[in-house]
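Pasting two entries for a bug report.
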Amino acid sequence: MLSLVGDEWTMLVMQQALLGATRYGQFTTRLPISNSVLTRRLSSLIKEGLLQRHRYQERPPRDEYLVTATGRALWPVLASIWEWELRWVPEHRQPLPPMRHLGCGAEFRPVLTCAHCGGPIATDDVTARWGPSGGWSRSLPTVTNRRRSADDRRDSPSGLFPQTMSVLGNRWAFAILVAAFTGTSRFSGFQRALAASPASIADRLQTFRDNGILTKADGDPHYRLTPKGAAFLPVLVTALAWAQRSFPADEGPAVLLTHTDHGHAFSPALRCDQCRELLTGATVSAV
């Protein structure tokens, strides 16, 4: 999951695919992306099963890129990122447009709810524990990030989803934030849980403080989620739900979520804050 949603170009290509782009020229028109970077991302998304190639013309050969069921299921993650960046991150290379719910016609914000009982969900409403295939050692990637090519660096889209990628694009950052949501607050606790070097932990904690995601008062050993940090919960739980459906482990799920006060399994669902109806990928559009 991290290798896909932690790459900004991949997420931007999938965003445009879900908004209707199917042909190579449509992606290059909508995104400031080079041909080489786009070609690599499309190939990767086909390999991972999020897109499929369809030949629509033989002479000359022309292909289109269609979203698979796995790719369509990514929309709650993208909508949650869109909302978080729109609300909490003012510095963007290009202003993010608001979202429109085609069901009621209004500009809206997605609200995280429980798919089983429909109730709204905040940080304290969800309890997490490791499942049969879970554990820090198994859930962390074996490499920090894919080594970026010269084309990737030159055409970096940083600034479109800048702070989301500071979480999802670094394995220690993502793990630290997950640990913070599950109750870890001391430096020693992060280091013990993740078995990371002190320098890696310190670097990511400082980034989160600089970005206003975590806070720590002078003399207080505890790092605490800010309102901005707590608002990242929909991104985490929708990404987790998508990953566990799309890439299931033979032993069972890696993480088990419970709706704390109700005692039943928690599965995320997004609703429109205007009409309260359940959102679907087909009813979310840019204004």
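Entry 2 (this is the one that rendered wrong in the viewer):
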Amino acid sequence: MTKLYNQTSEKQKRQTLRNNMPPCEKIVWAKLRNQQIESCKFRRQYSIDRFVVDFYSAELRLAIEIDGDSHYQDGVPEYDRDRQAFLESKGTRILRFTNQEVYQDIDSVVDKIREVICSLREVTPP
């Protein structure tokens, strides 16, 4: 069986992304790190198969994606839809926020993440 999560072949990509996080992702990471939201552990730049998600909770199989300007260029929305469909087919739930949401109202972003964590814990067996 092929390993699906954090494959060695994606290690360099993950490290590069972690070392070059956009400012918006740094803001979200400051809120997620050290289990600050509902004691939920998140990892940053986590790979699932050939895709790297911004933040991932293995406990809940929840990925959080921060969509910057590059996500609105030609062809990228279609790529994102295909990527999301693949990740969801592997049991990963995706929660998306735009840079604008993060910059303008980080508290609402954190509240939404908290709400989703609580909701998933209610239906996800321990």
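Dev reply: Rendering is fixed now. As a check, the viewer should reflect this: The beta strands are 43-48, 51-57, 62-67, 93-98.
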